[in-house]
Write a structure and sequence with these properties.
The chain is of the alpha/beta class. It has 13 helices and 14 strands. The chain has a six-stranded mixed beta sheet, sandwiched between helices. The termini are far apart.
Length: about 325
């Protein structure tokens, strides 16, 4: 009998059983960098439904609360533009020689999907290029740099550079993801959902001129507290670290994202079902889902490679 791989066990016996029932092939012989399991949607949704019943942090959870904050999954120093940088050669994942060109574009909320998309790029022989700059959303608006206390002009310049590169490269698919939570137009003045929608509509319209199919990956809900910090303080009471779905989704502008996608004939992928039921939990199966309040761990992102790939296939424009 073939032993269930550690990667599949990561979402617990429920997911492993669902994968087996779906007729998935047994895991290949272990390699130095094994591919992530292809967990079907039904198994992911079952694990999400079961998550609110988790009472204590499971032994051997991965990543641990102590390491979750650093669980990024790629070389962010190399692949993301720094605070003052206005251009950076795109990092390439998958098959660099492939004629199937895919671009992931946005801020750190785009980067958090790289672990999942890199799995698909390797499997599908995509040439996956990443244009990313933290705190710089792919929205045609000047945002306030809250760390430096000034308008984020370097973000505007990076956005113009990245979009110029995408238009020149003419990929077949462009994926856009950005953080809408707590963005400001100036010191202490929050951006509005309407302004966000208008700015994203401009961005998507520009990207559509490349001839690519453009898809917006929806925002992750935002927890009340940093998941690793809360779980470290309450390892025997995971329920102390959950956030209601209503509160978690009110903090982001998925409706504005979806409206901009609809207005430009772009696709839209909602990630909410992969994370929440009536509540959003910091642990699903044996996995810590969040590395802070709003970004996924690379471990959980990687395990969503199959469901994200399927959604991208079905996120038809219009």
């Amino acid at each position: 009998m073939v032993k269930t791989s550690k990667a599949v066990r990561i979402l617990g016996l429920l997911v492993a059983t669902a994968v087996a029932c779906a007729g998935a092939p047994p895991p290949a012989p272990r390699r130095s960098a094994p591919p992530a399991p292809r967990i079907p949607l039904a198994a992911v949704l079952a694990a999400v439904r079961k998550a609110p019943s988790i009472r204590a942090l499971p032994a051997g959870s991965t990543p641990s609360p102590a390491t979750a904050g650093a669980d990024v999954g790629f070389d962010s120093d190399k692949c993301e533009a720094g605070p003052d940088a206005d251009r950076l050669d795109a990092c390439v994942f998958g098959d660099p020689a492939s004629s199937t060109k895919v671009v992931l574009y946005g801020d750190s909320h785009a980067g958090m999907w790289l672990p999942a998309l890199a799995e698909t790029a390797r499997r599908r022989h995509w040439q996956l290029r990443f244009f990313g700059k933290p705190a710089c959303p792919a929205v045609r608006l000047t945002v306030w740099n809250q760390q430096q206390g000034r308008p984020f002009a370097a973000c505007d310049r990076f956005r113009a550079y990245a979009e110029g590169q995408i238009l020149a490269e003419r990929p077949g698919l462009v994926l856009v993801a950005s953080e809408s939570y707590a963005q400001e137009a100036s010191r202490g003045v929050p951006l509005t959902a309407d302004g966000w929608r208008a700015g994203l509509t401009e961005t998507l319209s520009t990207l559509r001129r490349s001839g690519a199919r453009v898809v917006v990956i929806g925002e992750t809900p935002v927890l009340d507290e940093s998941a690793p910090d809360c779980l470290a303080a309450h390892p025997a009471d995971v329920a102390a670290c959950v956030t209601t779905e209503q509160a978690a989704t009110e903090r982001v502008w998925n409706a504005a994202d979806q409206a901009a996608a609809r207005a430009t004939g772009s696709g839209y992928v909602s990630v909410l079902p992969w994370l929440c039921t009536a509540v959003c939990t910091p642990v699903i199966g044996d996995v810590l889902v969040y590395r802070n309040r709003f970004q996924l761990t690379a471990t959980y992102s990687r395990l969503l490679n199959e469901v994200l790939e399927r959604e991208l296939g079905g996120a038809a424009a219009g």
